[in-house]
Amino acid sequence: MNDASTPAQAPARKAATDLFQHHDHFLVDELLTEEHKLIRDTARKYVSKHLKPIIEDAFEKAEFHPEIIPGLAEIGAFGPIIPQEYGGMGLDQISYGLIMQEIERCDSGLRSLCSVQGSLVMYPIWKYGSEEQKKKWLPDMAQGRKIGCFGLTEPNFGSNPGGMVTTFKDAGDHYVLNGAKMWISNAPMADVAVVWAKAENTEGRIHGLLVERGMEGFTTPTTHGKLSLRASPTGELVFDNVKVPKANLLPNKSGLGAPLGCLDSARFGIAWGTLGVAMECYDTALRYAKQRVQFDKPIAAFQLTQKKLAEMITEITKAQLLTWRLGVLRNEGRATTAQISMAKRNNVALAQNIAREARQILGGMGITNEYPIMRHMMNLESVVTYEGTHDIHLLITGAEVTGIPAFK
Question: How far apart are CA 292 and CA 362, in angstroms?
Fold first, then answer.
């Protein structure tokens, strides 16, 4: 390790509640309403007080702390855009994004818990479900009393979800479901799974089914050995002749567009969340560079360090403007899948680059859990792949600008 990295010589780490300062180089806050800022600041205070103090230990031990769920529900982290009549907060898209930004500033795994719950489970029940399904699940999920997961990815079908082999057939008064899903956030603790499967009797059209824990033949084995998203529970969904009541079919939309619509909402949250990661890594590096002395002056005084910091804040500023504009378009119902895809890819990639540069500024201290940077780097290795890989999102943009889909 570099001599600039020994704990005895490194600047003392401040309490987690004091770590973050807001960096708003282009006064983007002026584009937010007072309600937006109140929602963001409430989430920020909760994260600083309750999540940051436990996250490093949880990540190191690969443990999820279920006691944080009620607090996350209280700040509106579960389905904030869901109407109040179904237990949600009825907030707009920018509010949703700001909450995800603050949670992921702490940890991508914790944001995954929230965006899966809100965008991939509550959202399809709200958009595609029956009135009975909405009343049964949404209020409890908004309060964190029930947790959900989203079953789309399969062992052999990730970027090509339309190739799925999980199927269900009509068996009179119920359906019989067979197959498996993989890399499913929340699976080990989920009370319900929104599972996408092909109907055998409708020429393979994709439908969503609500599969409940306790149904015979339904198991959720935990995924072990993860070096990323370690504070988030991940598992598989296995269906062995599971009898699913017909009332559990999502009736109001079918086809591949149904799960992809959910992914639009989740990817929007990722764009905001990974912006939070970038802001946290930049803030950590800036503070460290001002305190760390080498050659009789802070390393922030050196040109190469300033180059790194200047490039970081430039990319963060561009992403803030991109993400805010996307939120406005979402509020107006005008955001396209391709626009959401571009923001997800851009913001994950810039967060990765900023985390790597920040790690260099911290020297050897950057690889320790005295600081959050290496944990963010490891988490981002999952975020850059899930809900559309970096390359697939690049091809979505390519198809948009050329009119020629390269992945078909």
Answer: 9
Separation of alpha carbons 5 and 370, rounded Å: 12
Distance (Å, whole) CA 328 – CA 197: 33
Query: What are 225-234's pLDDT values in tens digits?
Result: 999 999 999 9
* Percent above pLDDT 70 for the chain: 95
Question: 236 pLDDT band (50/70/90 cuts)?
Answer: very high
- Say if residue 204's pLDDT is above 70: yes
Beta strands in 257-341, from DSSP E residues, in sequence order: 293-294, 297-298
CA-CA distances (angstroms) from residue 283 to 85, 123, 348?
39, 33, 17
β 148-151/192-199 pair status: parallel
Phi/psi at 266 (5° precision): -70, -40
Q: Do 146 and 137 form a contact (C-beta atoms < 8 A)?
A: yes
Which residues are tagged catalytic?
387
Name the pLDDT band for 156 (thresholds 50, 70, 90). confident
Count other Cβ atoms within 10 Å, centred on residue 404.
8
99-100-101-102 Cα dihedral, nearest 10 degrees: 60
Tell me how far apart the alpha carbons of residues 192 and 67 are, in angstroms, rounded to a whole number: 19
**Domains with residue ranges and CATH for the chain:** 3-12+257-402 (1.20.140.10), 28-142 (1.10.540.10), 148-248 (2.40.110.10)
* Per-residue pLDDT at 336: 95
Q: Is the pLDDT of residue 346 over 90?
A: yes
Alpha-carbon span 21 to 45, nearest angstrom: 12
Say if CB 209 and CB 249 are below 8 A apart.
Answer: yes
Question: Among candidates 44, 142, 51, 134, which has minimal Cα distance to 90?
Answer: 142
308-326 residue pLDDT tens: 999 999 999 999 999 999 9
pLDDT the model gives residue 147:
98
Q: Is 157 in a helix, a strand, or coil?
A: strand
DSSP for residue 154: B
d(CA 39, CA 46): 11
